[in-house]
Write a structure and sequence with these properties.
The complex is a heterodimer of chains A (87) and B (644). Chain A is mainly alpha-helical. In chain A, 56% of the residues lie in helices and 5% in strands. Chain A has three helices and two strands, in the order ααββα. Chains A and B meet through helix 1, strand 2 and helix 3 of A and helix 5, helix 6, helix 10, helix 11 and helix 13 of B.
Chain lengths: 87, 644
């Protein structure tokens, strides 16, 4: 049995009851799998004197990942504080 | 309880602060002394050897200090480090010497496609934070078999886990030793194989001094070393050439210069369109599927990397572990975002050299330095000296007396080391880079070695030095096992199975294919069963291993079996048959060997399923693992009782 499962008597599961982060994962997927597929198209535009597609692959997606990580960590922290399970 | 912890923690932190300062001061003073020696006219060979000794010494000191510290305060060394230091350590351990050397080289060689490695590694931190960190620390175990036992029970996941950990970590260890060997060979002027064995010896000593994950406080120094070494040449070049110390600002100018030079080289026939991969054009080396597969393999591999999960990043309270991964991502992003700048500056130097009409008889000395190591070839032969180059370039089909891009074969792994010399920076800039490289290679290679030894079941006996109560025969067994693993890995590294980055990507992909589906399902899916996990690990890992090994080592047989799935279709298979025919009829000796080389190289180019590179094997293996896990879990038991 997976350790994430709830006990049969309905007590708190060992690994906590946080929901699967489906929305953040979807965002992650779009950033790292979808955006790079359109590099050539995005290169028609410029940002900070860089072709946009190249900029996204080299720097832009990294910045976006950091932002998502920070926001997600803050949100998870708040969720844990409410649940009292951040330990 | 809190008071009990606070007491020793404060004492540890006080001694740590002293140790850190002493260590940093020692390194700084040593580099300063070497700089003074350089000014006084010491020989380059002496300086280079000093850099190696300093780097290896730094790794040994880190191991020794970690051991001293853990003996003083065995339980608090990890937990007392704040998330920012754990993030630094996490970043240093993940990037290590392999990505440090490899990523810039990949972007140099592959252009835009090389950025897949940057994206894969960086996105792995987020995947780790989202899927693993929220639940893994709650299991309270720091061994891979322990994790799977806690998640599933049963013997199947445990056995599969041991095999996957050993294979993937062995491949990673080989890549680390290749990195150490490359830097060692350059610094000591020794053959690559001897430099690998020498570095392996130092690694074994480091491991015997301290076989644990070490304390993040000390390991965070590795990141700072890496950052200083990586950024300093860029800052120096930016300041010298563009009048700004910020490489990020100079970078745009350099990029456009490179693009202009690319066009000029093509116009002047100093490069051909097949060799030159324009910086801003994507999917020239990998197709979109392979690009996505590399990102997936590295990201999932990072999120399930045994040396990481059993290390110091993912322990303690979830909140701290989460913050550590966020810091890890930030620090990794700083280093990774510098890799394209490295590649751009290196391209600029090389293209300027070619575009300036360099004659083969008058090439700069760094070409021969790397030529002698077999890392820089011109016209198919190592560029060991001007006479050899002129000779080989006059005997090719299209003879030339000028340097052309299409005649150059350059090892991407060596780009980072080459740049300071290409740009004519001081020898000590190269020295700082190489010293940091060797220190981080040896210090971080302890991670995979520790994980392999742990998977062998020897960790619990207390690897020598950690447990005074361990009986002598057991200690001897542990010593022998450690030395055997290191020796085998060193031997494998001397065979140079592929580039450092390729080998590292294979290691990450193997870990991802075998462990990621079962780990994530165990943490998040209530109905995942031990049988499902075992089957998923076996099939995912099996598919991945088969695809990598078969396309790389048995490419001809792979094409003969799976040619109909290759992206080149019947044309590629026909040319393979012709080459095979030529090989079969060739008389034994050099001619047959040349024919085999041509056949094997062609087979490796076309050995694929739907054009997916073996670096992107995760694209097949992870979905297969997930499907098998879901199917078997649902089919067998919804909740099999936990076996012990």
């Amino acid at each position: 049995m997976s350790a994430g499962s709830a006990d049969s008597d309905g007590t708190e599961p060992k690994l906590g009851g946080r929901r699967f982060p489906i929305f953040t994962l979807a965002l992650w997927g779009v950033l790292v799998f979808v955006v790079p597929q359109f590099v050539q198209t995005l290169n028609a535009f410029e940002i900070f004197k860089f072709p946009l597609g190249y900029f996204m692959n080299a720097v832009g997606i990294l910045i976006a990942l950091i932002l998502i990580a920070i926001i997600s960590a803050l949100w998870q922290g708040r969720f844990d504080a409410r649940q009292g399970s951040g330990k | 309880m809190a008071l009990e912890i606070r007491g020793p923690r404060s004492a540890v932190q006080a001694s740590l602060a002293t140790m850190l300062w002493m260590f940093v001061c020692f390194l700084g003073a040593a580099l300063l002394i070497i700089m003074i020696f350089e000014k006084l006219g010491a020989s380059v060979a002496f300086l280079s050897e000093s850099f190696y000794v300093l780097g290896a010494g730094a790794a040994l000191v880190i191991a020794f200090l970690s051991q001293t510290l853990e003996q003083a305060a065995p339980k608090t060394a990890d937990l007392s480090a704040p998330p920012i230091f754990r993030g630094l350590a996490l970043s240093a351990d993940t990037i290590s010497v392999t990505f440090f050397l490899g990523v810039a080289g990949a972007i140099f060689a592959l252009g835009d496609d090389g950025l897949a490695f940057v994206l894969g590694l960086a996105s792995g931190y987020l995947l780790l934070q989202l899927l693993v960190v929220p639940r893994l620390p709650k299991l309270g175990t720091r061994s891979m078999t322990g994790i799977f036992s806690e998640l599933y029970g049963g013997w199947a996941p445990r056995i599969c886990c041991i095999v996957i950990v050993m294979v993937s970590m062995a491949v990673l260890l080989v890549a680390q030793l290749m990195g150490a060997g490359l830097i060692g060979a350059r610094l000591l002027g020794l053959p690559f194989a001897i430099a690998v064995y020498l570095s392996a010896g130092v690694l074994a000593v480091c491991f015997l001094l301290n076989s644990t994950a070490g304390t993040p406080w000390l390991r965070s120094i590795l990141y700072l070393l890496l950052l200083a070494a990586f950024l300093f040449p860029l800052v120096e070049i930016s300041a010298q050439r563009y009048g700004t110390p910020l490489p990020q600002l100079a970078y745009t100018n350099a990029l456009w210069q490179v693009q202009g030079l690319e066009e000029a080289l093509l116009e002047n026939q100093l490069a051909d369109p097949v060799t030159l991969k324009p910086t801003f054009t994507s999917f020239l080396s990998f197709g979109p599927l392979s690009f996505a597969g590399i990102v997936l393999g590295l990201a999932a591999g990072m999120a399930s990397l045994p040396s990481l999960l059993t290390g110091h990043g993912i322990v303690g309270p979830v909140r701290d572990a989460r913050r550590a991964t966020v810091w890890g991502l930030v620090f990794a992003a700083v280093l990774l975002s510098a890799a394209p700048i490295y590649a751009t500056f290196a391209k600029l130097e090389l293209y300027k050299l070619i575009g300036g009409g360099a004659e083969l008889v008058d090439l700069p000395s760094w070409v021969f330095t790397y030529g002698k190591l077999g890392l820089f070839e011109i016209c198919g032969r190592p560029a060991s000296d001007a006479t050899a180059i002129v000779g080989s370039c006059s005997s090719i089909n299209d003879p030339t007396s000028a340097l052309r891009l299409q005649d150059i074969t350059l090892s991407p792994d060596s780009i980072v080391l080459m740049l300071p010399e290409m740009a004519g920076l001081g020898h000590w800039v190269f020295g700082l880079l190489a010293t940091s490289g060797i220190a981080i290679a040896l210090a971080t290679a302890v991670g995979p070695l520790r994980t392999i030894v742990g998977a062998l079941g020897l960790g619990q006996f207390g690897i020598p030095g950690n447990d005074a109560t361990t009986p002598t025969p057991t200690k001897l067994l542990s010593y022998t096992a450690v030395l055997a693993v290191v020796a085998l890995a060193a031997w494998a590294a001397t065979t140079r199975p592929a580039s450092i980055l390729t080998t590292t990507t294979w290691a990450f992909t193997l870990a991802a294919a075998g462990l990621f589906p079962a780990l994530v399902a165990g943490l998040w899916w209530k109905r995942a069963s031990a049988r499902g996990a075992g089957a998923a690990m076996l099939t995912g890992f099996g598919v991945c291993l088969y695809y990598i090994v078969a396309t790389h080592y048995f490419a001809v047989s792979f094409v003969e079996t799976w040619g109909f799935l290759s992206n080149v279709g019947s044309m590629g298979t026909e040319s393979l048959n012709e080459l095979k025919q030529s090989w079969m009829v060739a008389p034994p000796g050099p001619e047959k060997e040349t024919a085999w080389l041509a056949l094997n190289n062609h087979a490796r180019e076309i050995a694929n399923w739907w054009g997916v590179s073996n670096l992107a094997a995760a694209l097949f293996a992870i979905p297969v693992g997930l499907i098998v896990l879901v199917f078997v879990s649902l089919l067998t038991s919804l909740r099999s009782p936990k076996e012990t």
